[in-house]
Amino acid sequence: MLDPKTFHRKLDSLLTKIGQEKSGKDFLFSIVEELEKTFGSDLHIGNGRIYEEKDNEFVLISPKENHHIEKIPSDSKAVQTLLKTKTYIFDNPEFTIDHTVGKNGEYRIPAAITVRGKDQRWIFIFDLMSGWIREEIELCLNAVRTVLNYRLMSEAVKSEMEQAVQIQQSLLPLTPPEFEGLRVAGRSIPAEMVGGDLYDYFNFDNEVFGVCIGDASGHGLPAALLARDVVTGLRMGLEKHLKMVYTFKKLNSVIYRSVYSTSFVSLFYAEIEKNGNIIYVNAGHPSPLLYDGKEFKELDSTGLIFGALPEINIQRAHAFMKPGSLLVLYSDGITERKNGNKLDFDVSGLKKIIKEHFDKTPEQLLDIIFDTLYVYGGGKNWDDDATLVIIRKE
After folding, report:
1. Per-residue pLDDT tens over the stretch 12-28
2. Regarding the domain with residue range 172-393, which homologous superfamily does it belong to in the CATH classification?
3. Class for domain 4-157, per CATH?
4. pTM summary value
């Protein structure tokens, strides 16, 4: 029997490599080789090979040598037993997963584990030679199987989250639009890999510019999926002036029937005419700030948040944007950023920055606000998605 301290030190080293080894085409077999390199002589284990599930059988994929059985039916008793127990030593000659093992007269028996990713399963089979000890073999193989399964599932989830990030980023504006008489800057920082905040621009013609900002309750993937649907719905439904309220009511009905775990969305949408007139609807979103250098006007709610009721009563409202004025749209991740004393940055803090840096460009003001908030929060990660859109009328 291997010295326990030595055994655990080697096993810990092997499991660490499983977690750190670069994944790729040969990743799984590299783990087989590493196991044999680490424990081959100590545990009397070797000749590892991998079978991948394809249709109704497990097919040998590595290494492909003539003396290995090439296919194992998925419904065979040996495979079904292994799938149930996860790790199995076939020490009964009458019950084996590979009938070629031990046929040349030398003592060998197969030991196997199942490994699975998100949508795929494999069987690892090893030969045990004379001198093996059950406790050591089962401990080693169970540990390898558990860590390898976790690694594969984690990578699958990470890959899906990375795809979700790409999808969400593709929905957010990459660059500010060009619209005569307006200068625009926007940014959104999710609290997790993906978030529930959204903003978008709508350039109908040379006379009217549309902008929206929204916040799906919660954050993470459920909120991001809902935010995606809201952006898509607005892009499909909005037309200049006439369909603003109708589109919001229709979108509310869709969200209300949503099966997502987070089903509430605050949303502000405005159309800014070239002469400075603003027509807007605000479904429960934090009131955007309109500042002309002297006074603030808050564009308050004109209806309930989306998704709370099957039908909502929402109205249009009006404002006017003077030349030189700033319109600042924000999500509550901005004003609810907390310092070390658990105090919110609050709307008053946002107004203070806007006043102090009113002469800055929207791009510069965007940087100043996010930098200030980062310091205010002690340099910690964001607790909630944070989004800003700043528009100056020139």
Report:
1. 999 988 988 877 778 99
2. PPM-type phosphatase domain (3.60.40.10)
3. alpha beta
4. 0.64
